[in-house]
Amino acid sequence: MNRTAAFLLGPELVWLLLLATAGIFVSANQPLTGAGRGTLVLMKLFLPSVGVMLAFVPLFWAPGSQSWFLGRIVFASLVGVVGLVYFLSRAASYDDSRNVGLILGFVGFVFIGWTVLALMGGVATLFLLSHWPFLLVLTWILVLFALYMIALWIIWTFNIGSGKALGG
After folding, report:
1. Structural domain count, the chain
2. Residue 168 has what pLDDT?
3. How far apart are CA 140 and CA 137, in angstroms?
4. Is residue 19 part of a domain?
5. Which structural domain range is residue 115 located in?
6. At what angle do helices 135-162 and 34-55 cross, to 10 degrees?
7. Where does the chain cross the membrane (predicted)?
8. What is the distance between the alpha carbons of residues 97 and 74, in angstroms, rounded to a whole number?
9. Is 83:22 a contact under the CB 8 Å cutoff?
10. Which residue in 92, 97, 103, 113 could disulfide with 40, CB within 3.0 to 4.6 Å?
11. What tens digit of pLDDT does each residue of 9-29 get?
C-alpha cells in the first residue's frame, strides 16, 4: 500500500463511515417511532465504543511514526464520539417533554466512548513508549472486544423483547 493511501485510510475515515452508517439508520427510522427510538438508543450505546476500537485498526498499516498516528486516532476519536452521539441524540429527540434524559444520556454515552478511548490509548501509549510490539496485543484486544460486544448485543436484544432493557 502506498503512503498516500495508507494516510487516507486513517481513523478519520472510520468515523466518517460510522456517521454515514448512523445516517442510514436515522433516515430509515423517520418518522420516529418507539421502536426506532430504541434502535437509536442502542446505537448510541454501542457505536461510540465500536468506533474507538475501529479507529485503532489503521495502526496495522500506519506509515511512519506510530506515535503520530496514535495522536491522530485520539483526536479523531474525541471529535468522532461527540459528533456521533450528538447526531444520534438529535435523531432520537421528540423535541418535547419526553426528552427528559436526552442531555444526561448524551453525557453518559460520550463518557462511555471516551473511557474506551482512554483505556485503549493508555495501553497503546504504554506499548509504544516501552518499544514492545503492540500489533499482536491490538489484535487480541479487538477480538475480545468484538466477542464482548456481540454478547452484549445478544443480551440487549433478548431483554428488549421482554421489556426489561429500557426499564420496563
Report:
1. 1
2. 44
3. 5
4. yes
5. 3-162
6. 170
7. 6-28, 40-62, 68-88, 100-128, 134-156
8. 36
9. no
10. 92
11. 889 999 999 999 988 988 887
